[in-house]
Design a protein that fits this description.
The chain is α/β, with parallel strands linked by helices. The chain is built from 14 helices and 15 strands. A nine-stranded mixed β-sheet has the order 14-13-12-11-7-10-9-8-15. Strands 3-2-1-4-5-6 form a six-stranded parallel β-sheet, sandwiched between helices. α1 crosses α2 and α8 packs across α9. The two termini are 37 Å apart. Bound molecules: 6-O-phosphono-beta-D-glucopyranose. The site of 6-O-phosphono-beta-D-glucopyranose has 4 residues, from loops. This is Glucose-6-phosphate 1-dehydrogenase.
Length: 474
């Protein structure tokens, strides 16, 4: 199904996100024949960053060349490029943007739908939304709001009020690009399309769940944003708890957006408020010397925490979440560890690390991702010696396409189609801020860690009792 004709407006069109993800993503969608038959893309930014149409096209070409999956060449590029224009917008002067949107609508003809993507810093969400309301651009339109959505419960509520004064919830698409990842979406298929796994996907069989997103990346020139945000808001609230929602949810009655999001909201409802004693905050050594970072900054660049989902399925199963900048590896991994069988009847003990690596399901959700089932097997030979073994699913082994749409591409397409399934909902976001309140109120001290390490050990290890926090490698 192709979306209706559209004018897509990107606020923050000269910014980092537009350059890395949105412009390359839109071009990839265009090349794949997934954009509407008739569309236009209008870039926007405050007048001080204004470009003319030709400069914006060059900017887009450079962005696609640097970050896109396909080269900005040939007929496909020329068609896409011709769809681009730029109109600046300031709260007291939205005129240039209005003129470009009108021109784009006239060029398409009929009544194309408008989709606004707010790729601007969170502090600017409110003023852009107001501008859309005051100019009437909001009428009949949809809006994609970037993350983080608020900084705490009060600000998320206030932002929801601002948004809802202009757009009703059915037209609001709060983005978490992790939910657009192919291998996160695949968790629904894995769990609910197979009789094999779902029966064991609960506290009777699973001893713990780990969601790990270590990054080797540092600030990438985003000190201003990051100083205000930190790892907990940037990653845990925004992405990791959303992934937890997909892992922990009950089977929905159907796959429509409301049912799916109802089930996730119930998981968030069941989350126990974060206990600051179950959180480790870290800051990599050298962070305070980065340009734009305060010399006495307390911002955490690492967060590890233990969460509990107080419901029938998960009571007593720790959910261990960990993420941070400048860590040893760049990974995105969910691990479900299984309980030991009731009786140990094998003569040999599996020692140390090997023991931890057996009897688990590992879902690597970095594009393109893989899934491994690890188990203990008898080592060939006369003795009953056990060793870890595994079965692995890789996209490229089973499907011709090892790589579908990138997270942002999938989500922009879904927003054009009006499908909210993979977007976060106001009640879910507010609940996540609500359970975060004790931590935001009394955050533990940040502890230093060496760049390239696994964060402030042994504090992190203490969160995992009994057991041992490790990242399955491959
Ligand atoms: C973003 C965060 O939302 O997600 C970044 O702001 C982080 O700090 C990024 O690096 C990770 O996402 P990806 O696209 O690498 O999966």
């Amino acid at each position: 199904r192709r979306p209706d004709d559209h004018v897509v407006v990107i606020f923050g069109a000269t910014g980092d996100l537009a350059k890395r993800k949105l412009l390359p993503g839109l071009f990839h969608l265009a090349r794949a024949g997934l954009l509407p038959e008739r569309y236009r893309v209008v870039g926007s930014a405050p007048a001080q960053f204004a470009l003319d149409d030709d400069d914006f096209r060059r900017h887009a070409r450079d962005a696609v060349a640097a970050f896109g999956l396909c080269e900005p060449t040939g007929e496909a590029w020329r068609t896409f490029e011709a769809s681009l224009s730029f109109g600046s917008a300031d709260p007291d002067d939205p005129g240039p943007l209005l003129a470009k949107v009108r021109a784009a609508e006239d060029a398409i003809g009929g009544r194309p739908r408008r989709l606004f993507h707010l790729a601007v810093p969170p502090a600017a969400f409110g003023s852009v939304i107001k501008l859309l309301g005051e100019t009437g651009l909001s009428e009949g339109s949809r809006v994609i709001v970037e993350k983080p959505f608020g900084t705490d419960l009060a600000s998320a509520r206030a932002l929801n009020d601002t948004v809802h004064a202009v757009f009703d919830e059915s037209r609001v698409f709060r983005i978490d690009h992790f939910l657009g990842k192919e291998s996160v979406d695949n968790i629904l298929a894995l769990r609910f399309a197979n009789g094999l796994l779902e029966p064991v996907w609960n506290r009777d069989h699973i001893s713990h769940v780990q969601i790990d997103v270590p990054e080797t990346l540092g600030l990438e020139g985003r000190a201003h944003f990051y100083e205000e945000t930190g790892a907990f808001r940037d990653m845990v609230v925004t992405h990791l708890i959303q992934v937890l929602g997909t892992v922990a949810m009950e089977p929905p009655v159907s796959l429509d957006a409301q049912r799916l999001r109802d089930e996730k909201a119930k998981v968030f409802e069941a989350l126990r408020p974060v206990d600051p004693a179950h959180v480790v905050r870290g800051q990599y050594e050298g962070y305070r010397d980065e340009p734009g970072v305060a010399p006495d900054s307390q911002t955490e660049t690492f967060a590890a925490l233990r969460l509990e989902v107080d419901n029938w399925r998960w009571a007593g199963v720790p959910f261990l979440l960990r993420t941070g900048k400048r860590l040893a590896q760049q990974r995105q991994v969910i691990t479900l560890g299984f309980r030991e069988p009731p009786l140990r009847m094998f003569p040999t003990e599996i020692a140390g690390r090997d023991k931890d690596r057996a009897d688990e399901i590992v879902i690597d959700f970095a594009d393109p991702g893989w899934i491994a089932v690890r188990f203990l097997a008898k080592k060939p030979g006369p003795a009953m010696d056990l060793a870890p073994a595994e079965m692995t699913f890789r996209y490229e082994d089973s499907f011709r396409l090892s790589h579908g749409l990138e997270g942002y591409e999938r989500l922009i397409l879904d927003a054009m189609l009006g499908d909210q399934s993979l977007f976060t909902r106001s009640d879910g976001i507010e609940r996540i801020w609500e359970i975060s309140a004790p931590l935001l109120k009394s955050p533990p001290q940040t502890q230093p860690y060496a760049p390239g390490s696994w964060g402030p050990e042994p504090a992190v290890g203490e969160l995992v009792a009994p057991g041992h926090w490790y990242l399955p490698d491959h």
